[in-house]
C-alpha cells in the first residue's frame, strides 16, 4: 500500500525537477546564447560583405585580410572586435575576409602560408605585406598596427598566439552557396 502512495509523489517530484532544469537551461541560453549567436552571424556576414581580394590589392588602399572559418571558436571570439575595427576604418582600408573552407580561396591560403586561424594580414597601399597576426589577438595590438599602416610605417611584424584553430581539411572540396566568401 505504501509503494502505491509513493508513485504519485515521485512523479510530481520528477516533473518539478524536470521543469526546473528546463527553466535553468532556457535562462542560460537567453543570457549567454546571444553573444555566441551574434559572433556566428558576424562571421557569416564577413564573407558576404567582403571586398574582393583582386580589387583590394589594386585600388591603392591598405588592406586588412582575415582568413577565418565559421567553425573556429577563436574566430567567433574575435568577430566582434574585428567588426568594430571594420566599422571604424572601412573608409580608409579594404576589409577582405576569406573563409578557409571555400576552395576558391586556396591560392591565397597557400600564398600566405595559412595553417592556423584566424590569420590577419595587413598590407600597405601597394599590396606589400606589413604585418601578420595568427591566433587570438588583443584588439589594441591590431589597432596600433592599423594606425602605423595608415601613417605609412612599415612594421614588418609577425605575431603568433597559441590560441588558434588549425585548419581542417575540406574533405569534399566543394564550393557551395552555403560556404559564403
Structural notes for this entry:
- With 181 residues, this protein is α/β, with parallel strands linked by helices.
- It has one domain (45-179): Glutaredoxin (3-Layer(aba) Sandwich), CATH 3.40.30.10.
- Helices cover 49% and strands 17% of the residues.
- The chain contains 5 helices and 7 strands, in the order H-H-E-H-E-H-E-E-E-H-E-E.
- The strands form 2 sheets. The chain has a 5-stranded mixed sheet with strand order 2-1-4-5-6. Strands 3-7 form a two-stranded antiparallel sheet.
- Strand 1 (63-68), helix 3 and strand 2 form a beta-alpha-beta unit.
- Helix 1 packs across helix 3.
- The radius of gyration is 23 Å and the shape is elongated.
- The N and C termini lie far apart (68 Å).
Please write the CATH class name: Alpha Beta
The figure for the number of domains is 1
Q: Which class do the helix and strand fractions yield?
A: alpha/beta
The number of E-state strands comes to 7
Layout of strands and helices, then pairs:
Blueprint: H1 2-49, H2 53-56, E1 63-68, H3 73-89, E2 94-99, H4 106-111, E3 116-117, E4 119-123, E5 129-134, H5 139-151, E6 157-160, E7 165-166
Parallel strand pairs: 1-2, 5-6
Antiparallel strand pairs: 1-4, 3-7, 4-5
Quick take:
The protein has about 180 residues and is an alpha/beta fold. The chain is about 50% helix and about 15% strand.
Key phrases:
49% helix; elongated; disordered C terminus; alpha/beta; 181 residues; Glutaredoxin; five-stranded mixed beta sheet
Amino acid at each position: 500500500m505504501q509503494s502505491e502512495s509513493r508513485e504519485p509523489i515521485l512523479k510530481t517530484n520528477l516533473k518539478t525537477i524536470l521543469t526546473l532544469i528546463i527553466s535553468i537551461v532556457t535562462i542560460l541560453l537567453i543570457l549567454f546564447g546571444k553573444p555566441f549567436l551574434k559572433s556566428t552571424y558576424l562571421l557569416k556576414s564577413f564573407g558576404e560583405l567582403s571586398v574582393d581580394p583582386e580589387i583590394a590589392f589594386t585600388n591603392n588602399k591598405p588592406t586588412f585580410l582575415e582568413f577565418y572559418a565559421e567553425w573556429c571558436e577563436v574566430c567567433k571570439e574575435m568577430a566582434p572586435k574585428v567588426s568594430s575595427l571594420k566599422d571604424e576604418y572601412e573608409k580608409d582600408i579594404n576589409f577582405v575576409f576569406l573563409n578557409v573552407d571555400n576552395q576558391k580561396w586556396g591560392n591565397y591560403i597557400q600564398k600566405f602560408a595559412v595553417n592556423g586561424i584566424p590569420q590577419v594580414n595587413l598590407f600597405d597601399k601597394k599590396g606589400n605585406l606589413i604585418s601578420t597576426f595568427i591566433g587570438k589577438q588583443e584588439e589594441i595590438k591590431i589597432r596600433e598596427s592599423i594606425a602605423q599602416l595608415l601613417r605609412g610605417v612599415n612594421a614588418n611584424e609577425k605575431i603568433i598566439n597559441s590560441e588558434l584553430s588549425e585548419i581542417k581539411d575540406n574533405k569534399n572540396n566543394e564550393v557551395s552557396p552555403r560556404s559564403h566568401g
